[in-house]
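Propose amino acids for all 242 sites.
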């Protein structure tokens, strides 16, 4: 399809967890690993055990071993109280010990659906918060599907992050309560505008297409990923030409 690299989500499959396997795949396909996504999602709570710091440490080690410049982590859940209390300082300490950029991804409040005459309610289920803007993280990953759920202005957030923005999850959303991860250009997020803003921000990171393809057949999946790549290349090229 012509992608420059791939972001690897550490998951239950062994080949996502071992540098030997990933390096063999890099050599076979000549496609580098651009980012490692640590198994800090709700669905990966038991991948690499249950110690969240061990997960992040192993993610950094994996990134170093495969030459990936970025590790993406999610903030702690509220029920991970000790981890949450240590998170800001712990991320800073790990950043001091590696050249890999340890980036904290923006999340969103969980919203209970409206029922009858009861309006929807929002809950912050992350510590210290789902929004990384006011936290002292050196590096941040910006996800454009997450900004939609949170009701944030993604372009304004990118500008506020400035040089702290180290990694972009290029995706789209209609602004529903679901984490839609649509092909960029198929929702309401300012995907093109954010890409155009990157040079002005001094952005030196990477852009990863993150699109949900679970319900697609092989041909539809390939077409969606090709379209997303073309969108990214077009708007990044236009931005660079300005």
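Proposal:
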């Amino acid at each position: 399809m012509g992608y420059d690299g791939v972001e690897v989500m550490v998951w239950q499959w062994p080949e996502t967890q071992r540098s030997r396997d990933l390096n063999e795949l890099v050599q076979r396909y000549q496609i580098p690993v651009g980012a490692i996504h640590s198994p800090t999602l709700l669905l990966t709570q038991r991948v690499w055990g249950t110690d969240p710091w061990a997960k992040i440490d192993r993610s950094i080690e994996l990134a170093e071993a495969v030459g990936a410049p970025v590790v993406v982590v999610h903030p702690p859940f509220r029920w991970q109280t000790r981890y949450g209390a240590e998170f800001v300082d712990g991320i800073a300490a790990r950043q001091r010990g590696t050249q890999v950029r340890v980036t904290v991804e923006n999340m969103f409040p969980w919203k209970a659906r409206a029922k009858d005459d009861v309006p929807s309610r929002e809950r912050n289920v992350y510590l210290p918060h789902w929004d990384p803007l006011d936290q002292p993280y050196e590096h941040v990953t910006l996800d454009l599907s997450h900004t939609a759920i949170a009701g944030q202005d993604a372009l304004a957030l990118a500008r506020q992050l400035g040089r702290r923005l180290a990694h972009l999850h290029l995706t789209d959303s209609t602004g529903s309560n679901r984490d839609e991860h649509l092909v960029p250009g198929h929702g309401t997020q300012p995907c093109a505008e954010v890409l155009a803003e990157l040079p002005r921000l001094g952005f030196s990171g990477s852009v990863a297409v993150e699109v949900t393809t679970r319900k697609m057949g092989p041909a539809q999946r390939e077409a969606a990923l090709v379209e997303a790549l073309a969108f990214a290349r077009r708007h990044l090229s236009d931005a660079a030409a300005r």
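The two ends are 26 Å apart (CA to CA). The chain has one domain: 6-108+123-241.
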